[in-house]
Amino acid sequence: MSQIRRLDPVLIDQIAAGEVIERPAAAVKELVENALDAGARAIEVVIEQGGKRLIRVTDDGEGMTGADLALAVERHATSKLSHGNLQRLTTLGFRGEALPSIGAVARLDLTSRRHDGSPGHRLGVDGGIKGEVMPAAAMPGTRVEIRDLFAAVPARLKFLKSDRAEALAVAEAVRRLAIANPAVRFSLHGDAIQGFDWQGCGPDDDGTARLGQSLGEDFLANALEVNAMREGVTLAGYCGLPTLHRGNAQLQYVHVNGRPVRDRLLQGAVRAAYMDYLPADRHPLLALFITCDPAFVDVNVHPAKAEVRFADPGLVRGLIVGALKATLAGALHRAASTGGDRALQRLDAYAATARPPGNWDWQASPAAPGFAGMGEPAMRPYEAAPAPEPAEAPLGAACAQIHDAFILAQTGRGLVIVDQHAAHERLVYERLKKARAAGPQAGQGLLMPTVIALDDAGLAALEAVQDELAGLGLTLERFGPGAVLVRTTPTTLGAINPEQLVRDLADTLVDEGRLMALEQKIDHVLKTFACHHSVRAGRRLRLEEMNALLREMEATPGSGQCNHGRPTWIELPLSDLERLFGRK
Fold first, then answer.
1. 422 and 483 within one domain
2. Which of 58, 183, 418, 510 can bridge 407 by disulfide, Cβ–Cβ 3.0-4.6 Å?
3. Domain count, the chain
4. What is the structure's pLDDT at 374?
5. Which residues contact 16 (CB under 8 A, 6 or more apart)?
6. CATH number of residue 258's parent domain
7. Using CA atoms, how far apart are residues 328 and 554, in angstroms rounded to an integer?
8. What is the CA radius of gyration of the chain?
9. Taking the model in full, what pTM does it have?
């Protein structure tokens, strides 16, 4: 007797729901995509209990007739493939599985009316059982209500997270679609989140208004425009300065032909582009839009359509990496403005509690000249007045050095504070990269070769990149068991301590280089070199040295952040300083 049988249609839909509708956010995504494909200009989403109790999506799209409603809840029924060509998909939805899958695991209610004056209709589906199409009062467009999601398969409920977590996932799904469709009004309301109501942007808007609504004004103030094209593939959007970063990639939005995606190829390209500016555990903010021929990309490789496959993935990766690197390099010394804002907030809070009393006597102050016990001042001003021309430069003219670690510079807008070690470390790193790109570098021979004892792990790490180190000017030879001999050091580093350099280099390669490609390992070598040759905190600088550092920063790509992603300088605008002291 045969054991093969056809599954019940309702069971088939419930299985499909597990693939397409794994959580409330997935249902919201499918419904909003349907609304966008219907030409909606305003979409409202309402949820209760994170979408478990209620999901309501209302749009002003073209609407459906009664016959359309009856067919819309049938499996594999769709209006999105009139040409029947899966190779040229131009709509967000096309599978025809969402509505019947939702109706199989919840109570589904659809109400719709076309804009041609025809009457509205309503249809209900409960646990896979389809009701009758009935006349109903309705505004032009479509309203879809989902109640008691997964009520028909309660086992699925235990895999859902808290109401708050599910609501946040819904908000993220709506936000991604809203970023890709700035002309559409999006609103979201729920009992577990702070909702929003984003008006559609006008035809003259370049997309920044929606990015400000969704990613915040800090992003707009610190974003760089991206525009590039290669062999028919266009990349546009905005990428954040490296100093504006987060601990996860949640605020990275990438769209392909208007479709929000989370694709490993694209995420890897972003990481590669920012590799020189951010450590591996920090992630930039960005919103990128890839446009290409629909036949060039396959969006039918994932049930939730979250991943895509390109006909030439290397072309797309190269386009993203090249465009982002060129954009970041063009930013030169720029750093995120949020550092200065945070500094002002702290100063403001301190000033509110630390104002001097009205009877303050400056002669009794420990800072007064000649005060008993007064040591050497932490801030060393200079007699020479800042030159007018440098003061108008982006980073201004140096005025003083604080704690032998920070440079104060006066600009036309206010005050700049520079971390001298972080800034110089970045400058040296960029110089080393240029030298490396030019070809093998000559080493500086040591008068007495230095023998350095290392453990087995350090020796193995150095030997793995020995040839590459020689090309950078650092010549190492094995010197018996447990030691290496240093014959030359990089000429670009000048006089250095070879033992300290080699030990730190070995430690870096052992700790961080196990899983790195060779190119990344060499970048780590250069960063170690740069750290050793850079101006250390605690070193006193002359006025001309400080100004030379500022001018080189202005001309060097990426000098707004150090090799670890931290800002090298912050700016305190004069208007904010005056407000801080109650002058405005």
1. yes
2. 418
3. 3
4. 44
5. 75, 97, 100, 101, 104
6. 3.30.230.10
7. 14
8. 31
9. 0.76
Domain containing 576 equals 378-584
Which candidate, 490, 6, 30, 8, places its Cα nearest to that of 305?
Answer: 30
β-pair partners for 288:
237, 254
**Whether 532 and 389 share a structural domain:** yes
Which candidate, 228, 172, 132, 222, places its Cα nearest to that of 32? 172
d(CA 554, CA 395): 7
CATH code: domain of residue 584: 3.30.1370.100
Whole-number Å distance between alpha carbons of 48 and 231? 47
Question: What is the token pair recorded at 273?
Answer: 């582009």
Residue 73 near residue 100 (C-beta atoms within 8 A): yes
Q: Note whether residue 253 is domain-resident.
A: yes
> Which of the 8 DSSP states describes residue 183?
T
The last residue of one of the domains, among 330, 359, 391, is 330
Whether 28 contacts 40, CB under 8 Å: no
- In a domain, residue 350? The reply is no
Residues shown for the chain: 584
Q: Which amino acid is at 418?
A: V
- At 401 the three-state DSSP class reads strand
Task: Report in angstroms the alpha-carbon separations of 235 from 17, 212, 225, 252, 329.
Answer: 34, 20, 11, 15, 17
| Phi, psi (rounded to 5 degrees) for 481 | -75, 130
Nearest CA to 59 among 145, 182, 169?
145
Tell me if 62 sits within 8 A of 113, measured CB to CB. no
Axis-axis angle for helices 420-437, 518-533 (nearest 10): 130
Q: Based on the fold, state whether residues 504 and 405 are members of the same structural domain.
A: yes
Q: Is residue 441 part of a domain?
A: yes
Instruction: Please state, in angstroms and rounded to a whole number, the distance separating the CA atoms of residues 124 and 133.
Output: 8
pLDDT along the chain (584 residues), means of 10: 63 58 90 92 96 95 91 72 53 67 89 93 90 93 93 80 94 94 95 90 82 89 94 95 88 92 90 85 92 87 73 93 93 76 63 57 57 51 51 87 91 91 87 79 83 89 85 86 88 76 81 56 71 68 90 91 85 85 75
- Structure confidence at residue 290 (pLDDT): 96
Would you list the DSSP string of 480-514? STTEEEEEEEEGGG-S--HHHHHHHHHHHHHHH-T
pLDDT of the residue at 355:
55
Does some domain include residue 270? yes
